[in-house]
Design goal:
Strand content: 25-35%
Radius of gyration: 21 Å
Shape: elongated
CATH topology of the largest domain: Rossmann fold
CATH class of the largest domain: Alpha Beta
Helix content: 25-40%
CATH architecture of the largest domain: 3-Layer(aba) Sandwich
Distance between the termini: 63 Å
Largest sheet: 5 strands, parallel
Length: about 250
Amino acid sequence: MNEFTSFVVEDNLLALEMLVNDINMHLTEVSVLNTATSVVEAAKLLQQKQPDILFLDIMLSDGTGFDILEIFPNLTSKIIFITASDAYAIRAFKFAAIDYILKPYSISDLIQSFHKVKQQLSPQKEQLTILKQAVTEPTKKLQKLSLHTQEKIIVVDITNIVRCQSDNNYTTFYFLDKTKILVSKTLKYYADILKEYNFIRVHQSHLINTLFIKEFVKSDGGYLILKDGSNIPVSVRKRAEVLRILDSF
C-alpha cells in the first residue's frame, strides 16, 4: 500500500523516466502523483497539490530548484534533492547538512535517501540559504555550517568554531562562547570541509582552528595551548606542519 505521495521535478526526460520507474519499482510505499521538467510547470502543479515527498533536481532548464522553493516558502513536502556529480554541489550539500541523490545514483542510494527523509523534518530556511549560496556562487567562501544533533539542526558561524574533537563516529564542536555541540559524523568529514578555513588536523582526534592557537609547547611530545585554554596534543607527523603555520603568523 502506498503511504507517501511524491512529485518528481527533473528536466532530463530520460533521467525523469528512469527515476519514476525506479520509485515505482523499488519504493513500494511511494506513489508518483506528478512530474515536471521546468520551474514553471512544477509551480503550476504544486499549486494544485503538495506531495509528501518532492524529488527536486537542482539545475533546471528555466531556473533552479531553489526558484520553486522561493515560490512556495511554506512548502510542507519533504525534499530529496537530485544533483549531478559535481564537486561544488557535493561541497554545498555538506555545508548545508542536507541529504541528496548524486547522479548517476544506485538503487541503494535511492532507498537510503527515502528512509532518511522519512525520519527527518524538511530543511530549515537557513540550511536552504547556505545550499543556494554554495550552488549558485560556488567560488564564494561560505560563512556558515549546518550541524545535525540528535534533537535538531543548528546553523553556526565557522569563525566561532575553536576546535573539533573525535569520539569514534561522533564529533564534538567547541565554540568561542564555551558552548559545545555533539554531531553524528566523523572528524574526517569535517576536516575535509574545513581545510580551506584555516583548520588543521593536528592529531587523530583533534581538528583545530589555527586562528585560536596561543602557543606551542615542545615538551611532553609537543602540544598546543589554544586561546580558550585547551591543551591539544600534536602528533609527530603533524609537528613540522604546525611549526610552519606558527612561523607564518
